[in-house]
Structures are given as C-alpha cells and as structure tokens.
Amino acid sequence: MTNQHGRNDVASENIVTVFGGTGFLGRRIVSRLLDKGVDIRAASRHPHQTLENASGKRPFQPIEADILDRSSIAAALAGSRAAVNAVSLYVERGEQTFKRVHVEAAADLATASRKAGVERFVHISGIGSDPNSRSDYIRARGRGEEAVKAAFPGAVIVRPAVMAGPDDAFITTIVRLVRLLPIYPLFGEGDTRLQPVHVGEVAEAVSRLVSGQSAADASIFECAGPRIYSYRDLVREIATQLNARVRLVPVPFALWHILATAAEFLPAAPLTRNQVDLMRRDNVAASDLPGLEELGIQPRGIEE
Ligand SMILES: NC(=O)c1ccc[n+]([C@@H]2O[C@H](COP(=O)([O-])OP(=O)(O)OC[C@H]3O[C@@H](n4cnc5c(N)ncnc54)[C@H](OP(=O)(O)O)[C@@H]3O)[C@@H](O)[C@H]2O)c1
C-alpha cells in the first residue's frame, strides 16, 4: 500500500477512513467530513481520483487500499477513529463476487476496524437488502449486514434508497433515454415504487453518524427522499420537466434479465442484473426504521 500523494498528508492520528472514498457516494462523504473539520483518509484502489473531487477543500490523505487484501485494509485503518465502508460492486468479475466483496470483505473490514480500536463503523448497504433473497446481489447485501454486525458490535448500517445527483447512474439514464427515445421501455408494468434521495443528503447523514453529530441511537438507518413514485410516474415526471413526449411501454422482467446479462459484458455495463433484481420489488424506506429526519436532515424532493 502506498500513499501516492505525499503533499496531501494529514499528520493527525484522529482520522476517519472512508473506503470507497472516490465513489459517487464516498467522495461526497469525504467532502462533507472535510467541511466539518474532520481529518480524512480516502481509501480505494485508484486513490488519485479523489484529488480532482476535493479540490479547494482542506488537505486529506488519499490512500491505495483493496478491501480484498487484508494487509492493505489494516494499513489504511491505522490510527483511525472511525471508518466507513462505501465500496460497491455492481457486476461480478473473476474473484470479485458479490459474496466476496459485500459479505467476506465487508466482514474483514469490520473485524480489522474493531481490532484497530476504531470507535465508529458505518457500513453502506441498500434498502431492500435481504439475507434470504433469491437474488445473489440482494442476498449478499443482507448477509453482509449480518456479517458486519457480528464482526463489529455497534456498527451502524446505512441503507440508501436509489440516489440522485449530478453524476448519478439512475435518474441521469432516465433523462438521457427520455430525450433520445420516442418509446420508453418500462421495467415490467412500471409499478415498482421508488423513493429517490439526494446523494448529498445521504453523505450528510453518514458524516453525522461518524462524527458523533447525531443523538439518534440506532443500528440501521434507511435514507430516502420525501416522495414515493412508481417507476412509471417517475419517468413521466422527468419527461414533463424536460417537455419531452414519450410513450411508455411495459417490458417483462425476463426480457430485462436477458438484456442485462448481455450488457454486463460491456466495459461500463449500462444495465446490470442486480439493477433488474432491485427493480422487481418496491424500494422505499421502512416506516419503523429511522432515517434522514431522525438525523436532523429534512430531505428535499429530487425535482429541485
Ligand atoms: N448509487 C446508488 O444509487 C446506491 C443506492 C443504494 C445503495 N448504494 C450503495 O452505496 C455504496 C456506494 O455506492 P456508489 O454508487 O457510490 O459506488 P461507486 O460510485 O461505484 O463507488 C465505489 C467506490 O468503491 C471503490 N472500490 C471498489 N472496489 C473496491 C475494493 N475492492 N477495494 C477498495 N475500494 C473499492 C471504488 O474505487 P476504486 O474502483 O478505485 O477502488 C469507489 O471509490 C455501495 O454499497 C452501494 O451498493 C448505492
């Protein structure tokens, strides 16, 4: 493991390490924590990317670490007061399987954090995680949560709904397709209910949890936006906002599954089977679990 950017070194031993700190969510977590004056180590396999995302902010430490490699995990955690796992895997390739990354490596990270004396550990999962699901992805997310809680008692699980932001994969794709296509293919009948949330609000929630800025005492938070849409209504709403005329056509999930299997062979898979699996069931926050509001965050609608 190397620190590739010596000029960005942070001398403090009171550090929060964000694994996946260069990602869509992770770099916003880094940014929010920097704003709060926290010393940050942003760990990923390609750490140079963080420099571009945090220009103008206080210095922080980009560090190269692969959560499949226990020695690099330990080095990245050294001296950390808190750690966040915001690592993703959306398409299985070689040894990078959902089980390996979302269950085993997540547990390794939690164990290493406990052994390193980390006080707060936040694991990012997703709404709908289910250890008994037939979907390999959803099951791995559910089992990952269980493994993390067993390895680090007191770990906090944050389950975001689908996240929206300037460079997101979900809303941006709908916008692009609505602009491009006269006929829009729905997932199934388009009845799946979704509760999209701003990525910045999820990042703020995580930053409050790791910096002890919240009095909310719970082990699972489901972070979702203020409004529930059916997928069909969401596409309609986006088309209306864009002044686009588009005909919505139901497409069976079995066909989406075949398309996603083929799309996963493309370098930056535009569609994945786990997305199709997730779209088969409603993705809304449970009414009996705390979320953004309990953390003092009033979620804004994605229309804004
Ligand atoms: N995006 C959403 O709408 C959404 C919704 C619900 C839940 N989530 C969850 O939120 C979390 C973050 O998702 P995201 O969309 O921000 O993911 P992302 O943009 O794909 O970022 C993933 C991050 O993990 C790093 N990473 C991947 N494999 C790694 C490894 N083996 N070791 C170390 N770092 C690794 C990546 O950097 P390198 O490739 O350089 O290593 C990157 O920094 C995930 O758990 C995801 O399932 C996302």
The CATH architecture name of the largest domain reads 3-Layer(aba) Sandwich
- Write the H/E string, N to C: EHEHEHEHEHEEHEEEHEEHEHH
The fold-level CATH name of the largest domain is Rossmann fold
* pLDDT averaged over residues: 92
**C-alpha Rg (nearest Å):** 19 Å
Strand order of the largest sheet: 3-2-1-4-5-6-11
* Cα end-to-end separation: 41 Å
Ranges where pLDDT stays below 50 over 5 or more residues in a row are 1-12
**How many discrete domains?**
2
Annotate the secondary structure layout:
Elements lengths: L14 E5 L6 H10 L3 E6 L4 H5 L7 E4 L5 H8 L2 E6 L12 H18 L4 E5 L11 H16 L4 E5 L2 E2 L6 H10 L2 E5 L5 E2 L2 E2 H12 L9 E4 L5 E2 H11 L5 E5 L1 H11 L9 H7 L25
The structure holds NADP nicotinamide-adenine-dinucleotide phosphate.
Give a written overview of the molecule.
The protein has 304 residues and is an alpha/beta fold. The protein folds into 2 domains: 6-165 and 197-227 and 283-295, NAD(P)-binding Rossmann-like Domain (Rossmann fold, 3-Layer(aba) Sandwich); 171-192 and 228-279, no CATH class. 36% of the residues lie in helices and 17% in strands. It has 10 helices and 13 strands. It has helices spanning 26-35, 49-53, 70-77, 98-115, 136-151, 171-180, 199-210, 231-241, 253-263, 273-279; strands spanning 15-19, 39-44, 61-64, 80-85, 120-124, 156-160, 163-164, 183-187, 193-194, 197-198, 220-223, 229-230, 247-251. The strands form 4 sheets. A 7-stranded parallel sheet has the order 3-2-1-4-5-6-11, sandwiched between helices. A two-stranded parallel sheet has the order 7-10. It has a two-stranded parallel ribbon with strand order 8-13. α4 (98-115) links the parallel β4 and β5 (120-124). α1 packs across α7 (199-210), α3 (70-77) packs across α4 and α4 (98-115) runs parallel beside α5. The longest helix is centred in the middle third of the chain and has 18 residues, at 98-115. The radius of gyration is 19 Å and the shape is globular. The termini are far apart. 44% of the residues are buried. Residues 1-12 have low confidence and may be disordered. Residues 19-26, 44-46, 65-68, 86-88, 124, 126, 160, 162-163, 170 line the site of NADP nicotinamide-adenine-dinucleotide phosphate.
